[in-house]
Amino acid sequence: MSMTSFFPDLNVWFALSVEGHVHGRIAWQWMESLPSKHKLVFCRHTHLGLVRLLTNSAAMAKRVMNVADALEVYEAWAADPRVEFYQEPRDLSNAFRTAIQPFNKMPSSNAVADCYLMAFAKEANLVLVTLDEALKDVAKKHGYPAILLG
Amino acid sequence: MAVRTTVDVPEPIYEELRSRSEQTGTSMRALIVRALELTYIPEKKGLRVTGPLVRGKGKLGPLAGGANVNDFLFS
Fold it and tell me: Nearest C-alpha of chain B: how many angstroms from A100?
């Protein structure tokens, strides 16, 4: 079997990281089903996003973490032999422009981050992993590799 | 221990390297070694993560309720 590199979106990393997350069980079932040679990839967006979520009370409520502890969570992931950090692919600006094109007519769009991740996945030859059905549908519709957990 | 080697570098890349070296006060050797490390030397790895790293049973906030949080960095 060829090695596939997966690109979890921010919600998947968050669900994997925090006990009691509503999607934690689904995320861990998927994680544990992966053959060991498959890779999981962080980019700067998901790295910073995970730290931001862990340190924000709107996400963590009373379990909110300080920055140092949140960075340790990321560093534990980064030390996992299955996990790699990818720098932004060289041609991402053009790929992002293509990905966001279907949303060009919208005055403001929360699709910016989703399209960034889709473009990153395509340029870096990764499979985007999400818990968001709408994101998976948009990705599939426009030819971006993506899977939906659950 | 270092090993001496010789490679042909395309002129535009050489000029870019020389320019960066002058601008940053970093030797061309250091810039080349750093680029090679970043590209080809794997990071040292530790233990596999086997479960959630943030333990606890307390309730999470509304953002953890399944919403798409990918644009959270921009909010």
Answer: 14
